[in-house]
Design brief:
heterodimer, A: mainly beta, 7-stranded mixed beta sheet, about 0% helix, about 55% strand, B: mainly beta, 6-stranded mixed beta sheet, 4-stranded antiparallel beta sheet, globular
Chain lengths: ~110, ~110
Amino acid sequence: DAGVIQSPRHEVTEMGQEVTLRCKPISGHDYLFWYRQTMMRGLELLIYFNNNVPIDDSGMPEDRFSAKMPNASFSTLKIQPSEPRDSAVYFCASRPPEQGQFFGPGTRLTVL
Amino acid sequence: AQSVTQLDSQVPVFEEAPVELRCNYSSSVSVYLFWYVQYPNQGLQLLLKYLSGSTLVKGINGFEAEFNKSQTSFHLRKPSVHISDTAEYFCAVTPYSSASKIIFGSGTRLSIRP
């Protein structure tokens, strides 16, 4: 099993550009989570899906952030337009029916 | 609401010494408890979890944790640490009632000195 796959691993972009982060969860996991990690705020849950349906997006900071899960094997997190304060490491995690989340390696986003 | 407190932001330890990383939680409902480890430039990895049953839980890499309901604690221990244990450790809880939402502590950075 390849685990949770995220791409790209690193992204550097300029302020105002659109950024799309991608995630492939572990097969058979019915929950998918997007987190953001920064030194100042630690690990923050942005949104999570159950069976491809968004359940709780209360952690999404602004309307500039959007997430989709068109099928069980793919999810995207989009920031449009991006701002320097969005710079962080973004993690995707998936979870099987039993407890315990499996995290991807993260995408390190730098917005200049 | 739930909260998780990791009192020590950093713990320096000599190699082969024992270590304990402290975790206390607050919740008005029953919770599942977890410890995750994050190695440099990597994602979080599940170290161990307490769901029910024996309060002493053994995890990977020789770590164990003990659930103490009366003290609302879930401290992580290892009898003898190795350089490779250098990482950040996160304690987390999930309430039974909202079995998908996980609340993380602020993390404890474990640094091992040779």
